[in-house]
Amino acid sequence: MDFNQIFKNNEKWIAEKLASNPDYFTELSKGQSPEFLYIGCSDSRVTAEDLMGVQPGEVFVHRNIANQVIPIDNNVNSVVQYAVEHLKVKHIIVCGHYECGGVKAALHPSDMGQLNSWLQTLRDVRRLHKDELEKISDPQQLFDRLVELNVREQCMNIIKIDHVQRSWYKTGFPKVHGWVFDVRTGKLIDLGMNLEKEFMEIRVIYDLKPLENK
Ligand code: CO
């Protein structure tokens, strides 16, 4: 694509928005109150807003390689805190996708420089679910399953976060959801995880019992 085409596209987009609502950008500039925080992969094929069919202002987005929620990553932690404490989002979604390059790299260990440390948590997911994964002989099935298990573990990482627990105890929100986007069909799949139940099972390890709930 011609680099300058992007700016032509932008002009066209502005014209389309204004044609349907002359106050579109005036209203947009007043602020945001999205109900969703979406944490997904940076992969160019997995465009958060497009695949959900949502408009600007409707979803707060964080993307990184292989949709990781790493406890000491200041970036993702700040996004989650802002979304929960200030935007008061009702739902946090971790969305993985089949054919994820990050997950593939974790399945085929090699020295990847800076990416080594980033992919380490993904390799940990593989180790954590070693027994289940070793029983899968089909390489595609194994790849797909690791994508799903990675989503599961990153959802678990969300519920370990203090801001999330604090809000949960106070309001019952946010609800945490694990999704997978199938790039082969375009389908968005809800993995149907019950994170509240999962949390109750591991509560003895991860419940921080936030101060105001003691
Ligand atoms: Co990916």
Please give a structural write-up.
- The protein is of the alpha/beta class and 214 residues long.
- The chain is built from ten helices and five strands; from the N terminus they run ααβαβαβαααααββα.
- A hairpin with a 4-residue loop joins strand 4 (175-182) and strand 5.
- It is globular.
- The model has no long low-confidence stretch (mean pLDDT 94).
Order of helices and strands: HHEHEHEHHHHHEEH
Question: What's the number of extended β-strand segments?
Answer: 5
Distance between the termini: 57 Å
- Bin the helical content: 40-55%
Bin the strand percentage.
5-15%
CATH architecture: 3-Layer(aba) Sandwich
Mean pLDDT: 94
Unreliable stretches: none
Largest sheet: 5 strands, mixed
Kindly report the name of the CATH homologous superfamily: Carbonic anhydrase
What small molecules does this complex bind?
Answer: cobalt (II) ion
Judging from the principal axes of the Cα atoms, what is the shape?
Answer: globular
Classification by helices and strands: alpha/beta
User: Largest beta sheet: what is the strand line-up?
Assistant: 2-1-3-4-5
**Count of separate structural domains:** 1
CATH topology: Beta-carbonic Anhydrase, Chain A
In CATH, what is the class? Alpha Beta
Number of helices: 10
Radius of gyration, taken over Cα atoms and rounded to an integer in Å: 19 Å
Keywords, please?
50% helix, Beta-carbonic Anhydrase, Chain A, binds cobalt (II) ion, 5-stranded mixed β-sheet, 10 helices, alpha/beta, 214 residues
